[in-house]
């Protein structure tokens, strides 16, 4: 569990750095005024190697059961001989360089240089994570490349979203900001979706059959939660853009914050997935007795590799209810209701869709 938590926090730290650096190179008249203390960046940079070290330590601790040496020797072995440790070492060097530059280039006349170099350093740190991820181990260079695109797109998108929604000081320039962020976000989401499908090709033997495993259940929830995110993205790009044009004083910040909160849930699910065995051999994993508790609880059939989706009255009802809840997300915006009510609708919608799919599972 602690490894999953550290991975989730790691995603957030990368998003903060990517968001700050991207906004830092955008002209002031194209964005809202944000106030990010330098110590926030410093903390995020320092946390990245510390959080990623937890996975390294976990591996070293596991190896230590087979090595008659102190744990520190196992840590050294991982760093010098295993890709995970070597990637951590490279990441730590990049983080150290970032910290040094943060203090050397902290003045106003050099801050743009800091943010520009920071983008490359953050990308480099993301690269160290991509080359040791599940996709790289299963799909070699193509898998690592897909993971890198996936990681970069998601941190760029949610990084700008997080920083703008939680650190904006005023409501100036929303219209100009949305005018460039909308196509930027669409591009990131497109890359995110395509790279995700490409990664799934390497990691997942069969999407529906994988629901019998913990990884497959987490992936299913990730997909289902991504659907309401698209509704929020539509509101925060297309609909809010129109409203801001009509009312220059209108602030979309609460809707952006609501979207960022549901994204945090997706990050948590993704972090859990990093510690699960990918379903590249579902039958073998099931034989080892590693079927999902969620599948056993909500599906009416035993865990097997012969699963199909067969709609019935109950599953159709849940799916329709889910779509109704998702439609309520748009309705709350039109009615100028609190976006946090829309957030509840998003959760209910994803849950209803989940029950609909689980009820449609058959052999």
TrEMBL record:
Keywords: Cell membrane, Membrane, Transmembrane, Transmembrane helix. It is found in: Cell membrane. It is a multi-pass membrane protein. Residues 177-272 form the Copper resistance protein D domain. The chain crosses the membrane at residues 6-26, 42-63, 83-105, 112-136, 148-168, 180-203, 215-235, 255-273, 316-334, 340-362. GO terms for biological process: copper ion transport. One of its GO terms (cellular component) is plasma membrane. It comes from the Bacteria. This is Copper resistance protein D domain-containing protein. The lineage of its organism: Bacteria, Bacillati, Bacillota, Bacilli, Bacillales.
């Amino acid at each position: 569990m602690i490894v999953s938590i550290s991975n989730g926090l790691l995603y957030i730290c990368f998003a903060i750095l990517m968001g700050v650096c991207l906004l830092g190179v955008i002209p002031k008249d194209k964005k809202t005024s944000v106030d990010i203390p330098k110590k926030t960046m410093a903390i995020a940079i320092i946390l990245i190697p510390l959080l990623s070290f937890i996975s390294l330590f976990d591996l070293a601790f596991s190896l230590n059961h087979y090595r008659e040496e102190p744990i520190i020797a196992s840590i050294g072995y991982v760093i010098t001989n295993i890709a995970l440790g070597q990637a951590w070492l490279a990441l730590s060097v990049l983080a150290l360089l970032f910290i040094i530059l943060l203090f050397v280039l902290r003045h106003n006349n050099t801050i743009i240089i800091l943010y520009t170099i920071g983008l490359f350093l953050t990308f480099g740190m993301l690269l160290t994570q991509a080359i040791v991820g599940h996709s790289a181990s299963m799909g070699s260079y193509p898998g690592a490349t897909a993971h890198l695109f996936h990681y970069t797109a998601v941190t760029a998108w949610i990084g700008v979203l997080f920083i703008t929604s939680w650190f904006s000081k005023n409501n100036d320039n929303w219209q100009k900001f949305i005018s460039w962020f909308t196509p930027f976000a669409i591009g990131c989401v497109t890359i995110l979706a395509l790279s995700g499908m490409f990664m799934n090709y390497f990691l997942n033997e069969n999407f529906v059959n994988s629901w019998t495993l913990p990884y497959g259940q987490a992936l299913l929830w990730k997909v289902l939660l991504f659907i309401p995110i698209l509704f929020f993205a539509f509101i925060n790009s297309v609909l809010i853009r129109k409203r801001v044009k009509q009312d220059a004083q209108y602030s979309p910040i609460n809707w952006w914050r609501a979207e960022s909160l549901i994204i945090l849930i997706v990050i948590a699910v993704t972090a859990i997935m990093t510690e699960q065995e990918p379903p590249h051999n579902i039958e073998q994993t099931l034989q080892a007795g590693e079927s999902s508790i969620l599948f056993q609880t909500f599906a009416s059939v035993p865990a097997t590799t012969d699963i199909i989706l067969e709609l019935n009255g109950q599953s159709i009802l849940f799916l329709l209810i889910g779509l109704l809840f998702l439609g309520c997300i748009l309705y709350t915006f039109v009615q100028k209701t609190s976006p946090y009510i829309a957030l509840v609708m998003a959760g209910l919608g994803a849950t209803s869709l989940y029950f609909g799919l689980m009820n449609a599972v058959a052999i």
